[in-house]
Amino acid sequence: MSTEEAEGGNEQSIFETPTETEAAAATTDLPFQPAQFTSTELHLEDVKIVSDGFNGGFNAPPAPKMVEEEPQGWHRFYKISFYQPYFNMNTQDILFRCYSGLQPFGKNFFDRISPYPDFYGPFWVATTLIVSLVACSSISSRAEHWHLGCPTEWAFDFAKVSVASWFIYPYLSLCSLGLYISQRYYNVGLSLPELMCLYGYSLTGYIPAALASILPFSWLQWMVFILGACVATVSLVWSLFPSISKLEWKKALLLLLIPGALQFLIGLFFKAYFFGKTTCPQLS
Questions:
Q1: Half-sphere exposure of 112 toward its Cβ, with a 13 Å CA cutoff?
Q2: What CA–CA distance (Å, rounded) separates 229 from 265?
Q3: Which of 8, 152, 182, 250 maximizes the CB count within 10 A of its CB?
Q4: 102-151 pLDDT, tens per residue?
Q5: Could you give the CA distance from residue 31 to residue 258 in angstroms, rounded to a whole number?
Q6: Which residue, 263, 121, 147, is CA-closest to 206?
Q7: Termini Cα distance of the chain
């Protein structure tokens, strides 16, 4: 064999691919290191689709946001963040829940608002009811005062504003709190925000009753307020029934009868006080 052939053979051996046996023997000499994986969840909403036609249509998901969780519980009631979830509502949510207060049949009210009861809607329903009662009763009283031909000038009754405010807001708060304490004693499980939400939206039925009572006809006013009281009472009792009916029938009847009776009686009070009979004051 010539020297050139020997050198050519040596150069060829340098670039030869190792056999399978040699490769296996080489890999067995390496120390074993287990693979480490990090669990990262990829949600579909984190992927943004773009139509650039070249990169496959997907961009990298954004980095996860670090949210500092605060401890939950009633001991945080002095913080604004405690009340923030109960006022995070939009107009569509408020209107749907007002409709649920007028139409209690079908899906239960607590299922409609779950898991987000609110204080924003009940507050504005109560405020709207106060304004409606005072304004509509004043218009009705003024029209009846003119119809009777009273010689004295009609005067606005500011006492109605105080009575409406001091009656409706405490009624909403104290009845919700009283029912919450009672049902907690029997281990029913409804929360205070849920009950306040129910009481607030159940008062929606009295708003159209007050608007219809602008017409100064006593029989019409009684009719619409009795109808509004029936709607408000049925809305309250029907929504409470699935949760309270699990109790013994005497206890369940007590927890349904008392709130229902109070809900109906306030409708009669609204008619008797705000839309009572107008009389002409005597001249001095």
A1: 20
A2: 8
A3: 182
A4: 887 878 888 888 888 888 999 999 999 999 999 999 999 888 888 777 77
A5: 78
A6: 263
A7: 148
Q: Half-sphere exposure of 154 toward its Cβ, with a 13 Å CA cutoff? A: 17
Average per-residue pLDDT for the chain: 78
Coil, strand or helix at 49 = strand
Phi, psi of 179 (to 5 degrees): -70, -35
DSSP 8-class letter at 71: P
Locate the DSSP E strands across the chain.
Answer: none
Question: Whole-model pTM?
Answer: 0.70
* pLDDT the model gives residue 86: 75
The answer to whether the peptide bond before residue 115 is cis (omega within 30 degrees of 0) is yes
Most distant pair of Cα atoms in the chain: their distance: 148
Identify which of 167, 183, 164, 160 has the alpha carbon closest to the alpha carbon of residue 244. 183
Residues 6+ apart with CB under 8 A from 264: 229, 230, 232, 233
Burial class (CB in 10 A: 0-12, 13-18, 19+), 132: buried
**Whole-angstrom Cα distance, residue 130 to residue 144?**
21
Rounded-to-integer distance, Cα 100 and Cα 203, Å: 11
Contacts of 145 (CB under 8 A, 6+ apart): 154, 278, 280
- Per-residue model confidence (pLDDT) at position 34: 52
- The mean pLDDT value for 70-77 works out to 54
* Both structure tokens of 220: 């019409």
